[in-house]
Amino acid sequence: MTTETDFLTRDIPGPKPYGRAVFAVAPMIDWTDRHCRFFHRQLSGQALLYTEMVVADAIIHGPREKLLSFNGEEHPVALQLGGSDPGKLVEAVRIASDYGYDEINLNVGCPSDRVQSGTFGACLMQTPEVVEACVAAMKKVATVPVTVKCRIGVDDQEPAEVLPDFLARMIGAGADAVWIHARKAWLKGLSPKENREIPPLDYELVYRMKRENPDVFLGINGGISDLDQAVEHLAVMDGVMLGRASYHNATLLTEVDHRIYGAAAKPVDWDQVRDGMIGYAERVIASGGRLNHVTRHMVGLFQGYAGARRYRQILSSEATKPGVSPDLIAEAFAAVDISGGPKTQGASSSSAAAE
Questions:
Q1: Residue numbers annotated as active site
Q2: What is the rounded distance in angstroms from the CA atom of residue 342 to the CA atom of residue 331?
Q3: Does the pTM of the predicted model rise above 0.85?
Q4: pLDDT, tens digit, for every residue of 99-137?
Q5: Does position 195 have pLDDT exceeding 80, yes or no?
Q6: How far apart are CA 355 and CA 50, in angstroms?
Q7: pLDDT at residue 346 above 60?
């Protein structure tokens, strides 16, 4: 019988950054850019962070430095790729290898029309042989782990039938880890937001996949809104991935190192977080960016604290004004009664449906 913290001591498969239980912040288009990841790293030193999905064609033909560069402080950080052509994915992996990512992940889970039109994302669940060929090709050239993020099925597929075959193919192709969003994706009729909320969760099927594949790192994603739930999943799974919950209630990341990785519990140094973000914002502005490029990702901090509404107002409205100083971050922090702690527990209602 496993205990709540069994994941801290039991053997977890996979090469670094795996080989231990993992907490990951999900890749989210338009959200998990380099500014978001730098902010999240101030709150957790060990969580695995993911880029937004980057299409292989964009890496090959587009502005590589803009698409792939990141701050060294972000490690461990994984690059998520979109694509379905093994040759293009191989080229993208080769190019990305110069940037020092800790992992390359293939997106087989996004249900958006934009992604489907490029024949990648969740629609690839219908052609597992294509994904198998892509992963095998990527493994041949990658110098870091190659992983997959998928759904349990799409449309009229029967997940209990398709998911075991899909996983067997990924394992056979050499995937180092598979992250499973425990919902189907409906490719027609539901928006991406609805696809995160309406299809029912099937955690037990994902658990069964882990029990049947004990030697492969399998992580779970979907509907996980706080660390209590994350810890419960780790009684079975090797990793947990939170998306919108981590973004909308970023304060929960401050407990990840202790509760998931076993680090000593210690008070958050909020002055250090504040000053780190001010310094970072100064560098972003000096390089041609704007303050709100940074602060838009910080609005979810301090959910439940007295003064949080004013904090959000400052960062949401004042930070968009021309010429505003990064010292606005200090003004926002000063509006919060940090010493009083949160008055309510858990994520905000807007974050209840995680990525």
A1: 110
A2: 19
A3: yes
A4: 999 999 999 998 876 665 567 889 999 999 999 999 999
A5: no
A6: 12
A7: no
